[in-house]
Amino acid sequence: MQSANPLLPNVGFVPERLLAPRQAIVAYLSRVAVAPPGTEHVALDGAFGRVLAQPVAADHDYPGAARSAMDGFALQSRFTPGSFAIVDGVAMGTAPTGALEDAAAMRIPTGGLLPSGADAVVPIEETRAESGRVCVDAKIESGENVIPRGADMRRGEPLLAKGRRLRAADIGLLATLGITQVPVYRRPRIAVISSGDELIDPSQQPRDGEIRDSNRYAIAASLRAMGAAPAHYPTLRDDAEPFIASLAPPIAECDAVVLSGGSSVGERDRLPDAVARAADPGIVVHGLRVKPGKPTLLGAAGNKPILGLPGNPVSALFILEAVAAPIVAALVGAPVEPGSVSARLEAEVKGRPGWTWFVPVALRHEGDAVLAHPFGMRSFSVSLGVRADGYVIVDERDEMLPAGAIATVYRFLGG
Fold first, then answer.
1. How many other CB atoms sit within 10 Å of the CB of residue 176?
2. How far out from the chain centre does Cα 296 lie?
3. Hey, is 77 helix, strand or coil?
4. H/E segment holding residue 74
């Protein structure tokens, strides 16, 4: 078979020359300087899930003055135990008026500013009121029930690192700091393209030999979960010259291209030749020691990644989420971290020495135990990705994982 890969002329894939997935990503990122496409400022209410483009530090001490940790009375601890004259109280949202005199106490709510002269707060339930006075029967230590200045954050203290994917608590912190326009990395625009003469739009009824294009929508959803902005482009057909010409617009208009189908070494697999001819450096890696997804292609036009995924639905998603995610992460500016859970395998999981296998599993609970049921790999199956909750990795050093073994199950993104 004539190879479409110029690096492997006149042959199909040679297993001995294929890279393991981790080796391939290291080799790729050492050659292609993938980086976020720029920065922008977004409103605070739209910053959740975005990736911070600048570090954030505290602009002041928080709290800016000592506050009460209790509803009670602010007083001077050196006069306890004892009886205190009750003077004007502290109101929320205002500063106390005047300093606290000796042997006097001010009513104070939780969070109220500690008046000058006071060094402790006694909870209201630990006092007795008598004729405009409050009695404290126990010794109160200085600083008791007081939140000191800067107890939460100190001026200049680093709080959020560049490259952090913002969570709900982070949004609250930014609001506390008065940051209402948040510097974030621009979401990379990634072209999503399918290839194949057999593909039709999901709205159409397939005729014999046709299938609805499910890959582009699954891939776009996964890219959104990673923090990218997918952009759909027309399906590429298997005619060589139009295939190559159709790659130019998405490469020019987007920050990366993800294409499913046509990445192998068959006569009608146009992607390797198209990438080699249309882009520079073109093909960086073609073929991986992995199942599913051996015909994966990793290429680039300048610093713009071109990811060629297998056409089979399960293979395409596995390669995108389990292998190519670090490349997308470099574009997004933050790691892509799938959730994981430890589970006991209900059946043996076989691999192949020297290869990395991704095996889909379904999770179920039995009492306190989490069990993982492995599926046989059917790359053609669209429903397999729905039946499975995630996957286990059989490393290239392993031949199998025995039934009963505790394995890490990586969940699909968004699951």
1. 13
2. 23
3. helix
4. strand 72-75
Strand 340-345 and strand 256-260: the pairing is: unpaired
283 and 28 in contact (C-beta within 8 Å)?
A: no
| pTM for the model | 0.85
Give the separation between CA 376 and CA 321, rounded to whole angstroms.
Answer: 19
Residues in the chain: 415
Residues 6+ apart with CB under 8 A from 1: 11, 12, 265, 266, 267
Residues 52-108: tens digit of each pLDDT = 999 999 999 999 999 999 999 999 999 999 999 999 888 888 888 888 999 999 999
Per-residue confidence at 240, pLDDT binned at 50, 70, 90?
A: low
* DSSP annotation string for 156-209: T-EEE-TTPBP-HHHHHHHHHTT--EEEEEPPPEEEEEEB-TTEE-TTSPP-TT
Of 282, 278, 271, nearest in space to 238 by CA: 271
Q: How confident is the model at residue 414 (pLDDT cuts 50, 70, 90)?
A: confident
